[in-house]
Write a structure and sequence with these properties.
mainly beta, 15-stranded parallel sheet
């Protein structure tokens, strides 16, 4: 706690003694009086405290309901000769540019006609001041509690940086910056390299004058940053949505027309599984929703997606700003539009059907609180009140104001927090141990002056005794008897619960060796916002041992925005930690083990039980990692949404090398009513280790929209050795819109070494349109994709009527490596309309070396209408070196197309209909079975004609009564002698009813030299009818140069055969 906050709290405590108990904030004069109590401190209107790398200024700030204060941060000046003295900060953003797990601050500075961008690295020690790294730096005399280090990079710009957003815009795994200004016809793109530095600006041209910009994940959530830009041109207004599997700025934008130039943008979940876009366009609110463009899929599949809807809602007044705050009673977000007269137009996202269909708009009057056209509405979680806080930044008006919507009176209350001149630039960041964010606002009166808006910490209690005695009196002093000075954890929680937070509970008064607390009954539920920080103990962690507590939870949190850090919670007969509130953070805890993270002391029920939304378990630094092991289920997320689980070890010891199993699932998330939860992430350090659990690693049970990204599931922490879960690595049960992996560079999961299937999708009730995606994973190999680390089942198993799933995709990075598994690479049983594209099945990650699956590459049984590969150049799978067939289709399986794939060196046939070996053609094709036992084409001749083109003649003996016409006939060539396993797709022809009537067809595929075909090469063909039934590949190959067109032979293969299969379908 800082000196200033300590003096404020002492003053407030004096007022409590004087029975001024109901007052919730303090005024300017009181702040100045408190500051003047410091000896030698000059009492002036603004008090300045000089610290190592910036000036800290405390000014008069108050917001009654939220208990907010303001502090001025002066960042260290930058050395840039061209900057004039009048230079000012005009844009702010944040991202982890140096990839140390702590967000950095990026500041855009206007130099008049040009600008610069400055990166200030975030300081790990300001957030974890008692972590191992901070303790080492403190011992070495290198510790600093300031939120930012000195600037590491300065980049010049040819424009004034008025708007700035961050994201990985080229999918290289590093954060970038996009900068622009209103009226510009370009974006300046600064790429990050992971070291904290940015490249020089690269202009991205726009087709009009820019009016607004924002970033967000607005396609189907895939962990990749999309960019939304509003432009005006030629009397028209448009929204440009930049998104691509290669990175947002690597693809052409999707364009939506809007009724007027959009001046403000926001994104969020407005009663939809997909994030939506909202824009203020004059007096209209525009909502773009329903966007699941399936950009990683083949074009034929993308074409089936319904176009996004664009709805407009009449605001009946000019809107100047928009925000989408998270509401207090659920995961949905409201849409709030700030009108020029100070009114707020609200469309409530937690009212069924209100968004995006429009619903009734509620207008909250601002009592003619006039605002300038540049005013900005900002939502950020800074205070303890439910949901996000709302702020208005008015550069030409009252400065920064905290606002609240008075529901009963339908009015807006404005509380001025800080006066002065501010740029309409703000960013919310975590700058200290609490989960609450600070809102940083750029001032216009000083080039590097930022105003920090932060919650006032109301109470601080230091536990100095490990007994379990209660508090003596709820009087603001933690003590178990009058005047004894003894503060227990139970007493500290009771005191914190007695008044509005946020409060802090520390353990500096305890000595080494007394770190274990034995509650004798349930500890008080955390009913007020508080931070309990066990890392303040001299031993670095406090243990809560529930052996004597009875059938109770270790810690229950009903409040919002609390933080638990550095606690070992074990041996309780119920749950270790139960989160009933929202926005809570748990990091650096051991739940189910001792303080060392090695001994199984599991809680009898779940390690975590989460029944609130927007909570975070873990983080992206080692200091944030939780060890969650030895419990019934490690983490149990029940009927709630938008929780984040990152960077944890679930089912292992603290080293990630040995199992300390949770009895059932490592993580179980079920019955989300809305948009699911995030397990892992696509930034460095976000992935969890979920291994060594007794049954499933991760169980997604009817939890729509859950994302599983960047995790190790079934391996040790290195990803090089098995640490198996006792069942499937990942199991879906009646789940929809679940993503396991994404095409983001860091979205890949390693799902290997498990005792069951790698990924198992099942259910009791049919879900024909589940639309789950499994992309960019390593399934059955080590984390490099170079060696076997088998799952002792199938690599991926789709079953029990859970249909319309996608495995892989046609976009770069979408395909999986599915190799080394005990059974089939992919098993599809009783599951229809699935798509398998772009995968490597049976090879290493380079597609070269064998890592065989023990069964077929793909096994399809009693399943129909699946597409294996496709007709696009990147649709095909490589299916090679598997122990049995490449693709085996058996049982009552129909309409399964096998197109564009490479199949080589499999132990059985490339395509086996019936799983019974080669099936000969029958006259007219009346036989039935898998894929109708479709007849394959008989090649009658092939040559290089005088024009140099490859010409071939063929026939397909399939009566139109037995096959749906037209038929697609694909031709392939085996390089060399047809025995070496290298085969290439050449092209296709269409076999029509006319061809069938004629008996033969002759076609030219293309220039032989360009195709790389010569006389003496071997060719072969398949047929696929219009229903999608693909034939087997015949056992014989035809020799180019043997031209027999016009003759019909009994078997059609008079040139000889080769019996070792090496068949390529696709380029």
């Amino acid at each position: 706690m800082t000196f200033i906050e300590d003096r404020i709290l002492m003053h407030l405590h004096k007022r409590k003694r004087a029975r001024h108990r109901t007052r919730k904030s303090f005024n300017t004069l009181e702040v100045m009086m408190i500051l003047c109590e410091k000896p030698g401190f000059m009492c002036v209107p603004i008090a300045v405290l000089t610290v190592s790398c910036f000036l800290l200024t405390v000014v008069c700030g108050q917001a009654e309901a939220a208990s907010l204060i303001t502090r001025d941060l002066r960042l260290q000046p930058v050395e840039f000769a061209q900057l004039p003295a009048s230079a000012r900060a005009t844009a702010l953003a944040s991202a982890d540019f140096d990839e140390d797990g702590v967000p950095d601050l990026v500041v855009g500075i206007s130099g008049g006609s040009f600008g610069v961008v400055v990166v200030y690295p975030g300081n790990l020690d300001s957030i974890y001041p008692n972590g191992p790294q901070a303790r080492a730096r403190r011992a070495a005399g290198m510790f600093s509690e300031q939120p930012f280090h000195p600037a590491v990079d300065v980049v010049s710009l040819a424009l004034v940086p008025e708007m700035m957003v961050t994201g990985d815009f080229d999918n290289d795994g590093h954060w970038d910056v996009a900068i622009t200004a209103r009226g510009e016809n370009r974006i300046e793109w600064l790429r990050g390299d992971g070291s904290g530095r940015l490249t020089s600006a690269d202009p991205v041209p726009l087709p009009g004058k820019l009016t607004a910009i924002i970033e967000g994940d607005v396609n189907r959530r895939d962990g990749m940053t999309d960019l939304i830009v509003a432009v005006a041109r030629d009397g028209a207004a448009e929204l440009l949505v930049f998104e691509s599997p290669l990175g947002a700025l690597r693809g052409a934008p999707e364009i939506h027309r809007v009724p007027a130039p959009a001046t403000e943008l926001t994104t969020g979940f407005f009663r939809s599984l997909m994030p939506s876009i909202a824009a203020v366009a004059g007096s209209e609110l525009v909502i773009v929703h329903g966007r699941d463009r399936r950009l990683t899929h083949a074009g034929i599949l993308r074409a089936t997606v319904a176009p996004a809807r664009v709805d407009t809602i009449d605001l009946r007044a000019a809107g100047i700003a928009i925000a989408s705050p998270r509401v207090e009673d659920g995961p949905w977000q409201d849409l709030l539009v700030l009108l020029a007269n100070g009114d707020i137009a609200r469309v409530s996202g937690n009212r069924p059907g209100a968004i995006p269909t429009g619903g009734p708009i509620t207008v909250y009057t601002g009592r003619q609180h006039r605002l300038s056209p540049d005013a900005r509405l900002v939502a950020a979680k800074c205070s303890v009140k439910p949901g996000d806080d709302l702020f208005v930044i008015d550069p030409e008006g009252s400065g920064v104001s905290f606002i609240e919507l008075e529901t009963g009176q339908r009015s807006v209350s404005f509380a001025d927090i800080s006066s002065g001149r501010f740029a309409p630039a703000a960013v919310a960041m975590r700058l200290g141990p609490s989960s609450l964010r600070s809102l940083l606002v750029a001032g216009l009166d000083d080039s590097l002056s930022l105003t920090e808006i932060v919650a006032l910490r109301r109470g601080a209690f230091d536990v100095n005794d490990n007994n379990d005695d209660p508090d003596f009196a709820l009087d603001g002093v933690c003590e178990t008897a009058s005047g004894n000075g003894v503060c227990t954890l139970r007493a500290a929680i009771q005191e914190a619960n007695a008044s509005t937070g946020p409060h802090t509970i520390t353990f500096t008064g305890m000595t080494s060796g007394d770190q274990t607390i034995y509650p004798l009954s349930a500890l008080p539920t955390l009913g007020q916002t508080m931070t309990i920080d066990g890392t303040t103990h001299v031993d670095g962690m406090v243990e809560l041992d529930g052996t004597a507590a009875g059938a109770v939870n270790g810690i229950t949190v009903s409040a919002d925005s609390s933080t638990l850090h550095g606690l070992s919670v074990h041996s309780f007969r119920e749950r270790g930690i139960r989160l009933e509130g929202d926005f809570n953070l748990v990091e650096g805890c051991h739940v189910g083990t001792d303080a060392g993270g090695t001994t199984n002391l599991g809680n009898l029920n779940h390690g975590f039980s989460i029944v609130g939304s927007n909570n975070q378990i873990g983080g992206t630094t080692p200091e944030a990692r939780n060890i969650i092991s030895g419990n019934k289920n490690g983490i149990y997320i029940d009927r709630v949404s938008l929780n984040t689980v990152q960077g944890n070890y679930v089912g292992t010891d603290a080293s990630g090398s040995f199992s300390v199993q949770n009895t059932y699932s490592g993580i179980l998330t079920r019955f989300s009513p809305t948009v699911g939860n995030l397990i892992g992430g696509t930034v460095p350090g976000a992935g969890n280790l979920v291994s060594g659990n007794g049954s499933r690693g991760l169980f997604v049970w009817d939890d729509p929209g859950t994302q599983v990204l960047g995790n190790l599931i079934g391996t040790d922490a290195t990803g090089g050795a098995a640490l198996p879960n006792g069942g499937p690595g990942v199991m879906f049960y009646e789940a929809i819109h679940t993503d396991v992996g994404s095409s983001a560079l860091l979205g890949r999961n390693v799902i290997s070494g498990n005792a069951g299937d790698g990924v198992y999708c099942n259910g009791y009730n049919p879900v024909p349109d589940a639309l789950n995606q499994i992309q960019n994973n390593l399934i059955g190999t080590n984390s490099l994709g170079t060696d076997e680390l088998k799952n002792f089942g199938h690599g991926i198993s789709l079953g029990a009527w859970i249909g319309s799933n996608v495995i892989g995709g046609s976009a770069p990075g979408a395909g999986n490596v599915i190799s080394g598994n005990l059974n089939a690479g992919v098993s599809i049983q009783n599951s229809n309309h699935n798509v398998v594209q772009g995968n490597l099945i049976g090879t290493d990650s380079a597609g070269i070396m064998p890592i065989s699956n023990g069964g077929a590459g793909i096994w399809i049984y009693d399943a129909s209408s699946s597409q294996i590969g496709g007709v696009g150049p990147a649709d095909g799978n490589t299916i090679a070196h598997n122990s049995y067939d490449g693709v085996a289709i058996a049982g009552q399986s129909l309409f399964n197309s096998v197109l564009g794939n490479t199949m080589a060196f499999n132990g059985g046939l490339p395509i086996d209909l019936g799983n019974d070996g080669a099936t000969l053609n029958d006259a007219g094709d009346p036989d039935s079975g898998a894929n109708r036992l479709m007849n394959f084409p008989e090649i009658l001749g092939a040559r290089i004609n005088p024009a140099g083109d490859l010409e071939f003649s063929y026939a397909v003996d399939s009566d139109p009564l037995n096959a749906e016409y037209d038929l697609r006939v694909e031709l392939y060539v085996a390089d060399g002698d047809g025995l070496d396993g290298t085969v290439r797709y050449l092209g296709f022809d269409t076999w029509t009813l006319t061809d069938y009537a004629n008996g033969t067809a002759t076609t030219v595929i293309g220039n032989a030299a360009l195709l790389g075909v010569d006389n003496g090469d071997w060719i072969v063909a398949t047929a696929t009818d219009d229903d999608g039934n693909t034939s087997e590949l015949p056992e014989s190959l035809w020799l180019v140069g043997n031209w027999l067109a016009g003759s019909i032979f009994d078997d059609g293969f008079e040139s000889g055969t080769t019996t070792r299969w090496s068949v390529t379908v696709g380029m």
